[in-house]
Design a protein that fits this description.
This protein has 268 residues and is an alpha+beta fold. The chain is built from eight helices and eight strands, in the order H-H-H-E-E-H-E-E-H-E-E-E-H-H-H-E.
């Protein structure tokens, strides 16, 4: 009887994680059940992060939509991101405030992979070529997990992209360390937010997160993005995504001055 109960609890934990992980990188908070989070928080604390402007709940219908769409996206064969590939561009990011200190700079280079995620790759390149990322802060940095960025410092600029959602790309390669991926609030909602995987997060593959490129130079620089503010609000004391959308860099510079940011991004 005891072993049956343990199995049941493990199954509940697994289903909860799968239903929530797709919203872990978005402005849509991820909590189906607060009591479930208390039971399983130690095993998957990063997945239940909330960084949005709403009250910390996602509807059952929304969770089911995410789960069903992720199942469709995950039907393709997922492979490791270790082949050379053809095509694509090199996008160089110059970073300031490394380790949270003004004047400490470095660069990293992303090689885009249109063969992995053609829709996402095209948007990523377009954003880089339009200087969208210049001045953007890495507002969510969780060591060993992800670095998240992609909200423009000018609310007027950001608002122009909020309604320009992309269709989803099938997941063709795994979310291994160094891969670059669009964040999402559910099926067909990718716009401008992205993250770099700091670890081998293969559990994200089945959630529909499709890598569009990978860091080919300077991963040591990415590891030095300032992480001292921790998880975003309301789960942590880090930046609130809703306020970034509304107030831009004026909010971040005043309240979170140590965040690492991109002084220049160039597509080559």
């Amino acid at each position: 009887l005891s072993s049956h109960k343990d199995f049941k609890m493990k199954l509940i934990a697994l289903l909860t994680i799968q239903a929530l992980a797709a919203s872990a990188f978005t402005g849509v908070p991820s909590s189906v059940s607060r009591s479930a989070l208390k039971h399983h928080n130690s095993a998957a604390s990063g997945l239940f992060a909330t960084t949005g402007e709403t009250d910390g709940s996602i509807s059952r219908r929304e969770a089911l939509q995410v789960a069903s769409a992720a199942a469709v996206l995950a039907t393709s064969t997922v492979v490791n991101a270790d082949d050379e590939g053809a095509g694509g561009k090199l996008v160089e990011f110059t970073v300031n405030n490394l380790d949270g200190e003004e004047g400490k700079t470095g660069t990293f280079v992303v090689k885009t992979r249109p063969d992995w995620a053609p829709i996402g790759e095209e948007r990523f390149v377009a954003l880089a070529e339009s200087s969208f990322f210049d001045g953007c802060r890495a507002f969510r940095v969780l060591p060993g997990f992800i670095v998240q960025f992609g909200i423009n410092g000018d609310p007027a600029v950001q608002s122009k992209w909020r309604s320009s959602s992309l269709k989803d790309d099938p997941v063709k390669v795994s979310n291994s360390r160094g891969t670059v991926v669009f964040a999402t609030a559910g099926p067909g909602t990718r716009t401008t937010q992205l993250f770099v995987n700091l670890g081998n997060n293969s559990f994200l593959d089945k959630q529909g997160f499709s890598p569009l490129g990978e860091v080919v130079e300077g991963m040591d620089v990415v590891e030095r993005f300032y992480s001292g503010y921790g998880e975003g609000a309301p789960s942590g004391r880090g930046p609130n995504q809703g306020l970034i959308q509304k107030q831009g860099n004026s909010y971040l510079e005043a309240s979170y001055p140590k965040l690492s940011y991109f002084s220049k991004v160039v597509a080559k």
